[in-house]
Amino acid sequence: MMTNKLDKEEKEILESYENDEWVSVLNEIDVAKYKAAAKNTFKKDKRVNIRISKLDLELLQERALIEGLPYQTLMSSVLHKYVTGRLKDKNV
After folding, report:
1. What is the C-alpha separation between 67 and 25, in angstroms, rounded?
2. Is residue 88 packed enough to be buried (19+ CB in 10 Å), middle (13-18) or exposed (0-12)?
3. Among 7, 10, 2, 4, which Cα is nearest to 90's?
4. Burial code of 42-51, b = ≥16 C-beta within 10 A, e = fewer?
5. Of 1, 26, 27, 28, which Cα lies nearest the Cα of 15?
6. How does pLDDT run across 5-60, given as a tens digit for each residue?
7. Least CB-packed of 2, 5, 31, 34 within 10 Å?
8. Confidence band (pLDDT; 50, 70, 90) for 4?
């Protein structure tokens, strides 16, 4: 299993799942609600154009290659984690 790419929260969720601590949602209304929430979470319905330095773009592309992601997906993920408070400065 490749858990080395998971952050602390993701590892805790995986461990919880593997310990059978999760139960299925049986209510069809709740299932529909959760499906809609999940779909909307990752819905990309806006386009943004930004200017960044050539070096920053090359470093992003390199990091994305290492992570096995398209660089725009990596950028979107980093921004999402930042605005939701899940991306923190290690030195703080």
Report:
1. 33
2. exposed
3. 7
4. eeeeeeeeee
5. 1
6. 788 888 999 999 899 998 876 788 888 887 887 777 777 778 889 999 999 999 99
7. 2
8. low
Distance in angstroms between the alpha carbons of the first and the last residue of the chain: 31
User: How many residues belong to the chain?
Assistant: 92
In the structure encoding, which two tokens stand for residue 12, read together?
Answer: 């805790």
Token duo for residue 63 = 């990091």
Amino acid identity, residue 73?
T
What is the 3 state secondary structure string of 45-79?
A: CCCCCCCCCHHHHHHHHHHHHHHCCCHHHHHHHHH
Instruction: Return the DSSP state at 6.
Output: S
Name every residue whose Cβ is closer than 8 Å to that of residue 77 and which is 6 or more positions away in sequence.
69
